[in-house]
Amino acid sequence: MSYSMEVLTFTHWTLLGLGALIMGMSKGGIPGAGNLTVAIFALVLEDALGPVGVPLSVGLLLPVLISADVAATGVYRRHADWKYIIRLLPCFLVGTILGWMVFDYFQGGDNRVEQLKVLIGLILLSMTLLHFILQFRKKIKLKENEHPDKKTTTINSKGSIGLGVIFGSIGGVATMLANAAGPIAQLYLLVMGLPKYAFIGTSAWLFLIVNICKIPFMIDLGIITWESISISGWLFVPAVIGAVLAPILVRHINQKVFESMIWFFIVIAGFRMIF
Q: CA nearest 179: which of 54, 45, 50, 5?
């Protein structure tokens, strides 16, 4: 599959630039915002190219993601906990291979591409649910810290490895199909009790490695081409701007309100892709 920049209108470019900006903001301190970018890219390319645009949007987004991951690992390079990366990475890669096979199946005709669109919508809604589970889990942890004498639940080494297998495998499939596995990894790292900077740094390094490993699979699927890379290259700029703007926005606006708006639009986009 291939396409050129000529098929994209000014409106398409504007929306893709907005999506890249939001992706950069997600890496710069606004969690979950990147899932909205997944939906924007899929809906824009579907409008420009028809049903075939949905799988192509996944390949178009990957280089933008990698550029944002590189920026994030540069900032948090000293804060990664490699024990958890090593624990998750093999399962993520197995899940990526499974996702590659599933993705290949869904490219076999317009009907299957429509099914892929629905599946991506379901993944986005599932990630939204995981996000709110994540927030609930954080509130519980804060309450436990306020009452240190209160008995807390701990996870032993075997339990953490078992969770790593489950979360990693599911995350690998989700990231291959929709570039939307962030909440899965974040929930696992939160359960493991990582402090703030180790949490961000570990997640950033994990997804940089996973996203780089996805490149040959997406080339094989035909969703990363020279044409798609030429378009992705123009989207690096808004992604970097978003990463720079995010900390400023966090300081000057009500982050809870802003994040609620982001997740509201993700839910709307998820249902739009399903129905």
A: 54
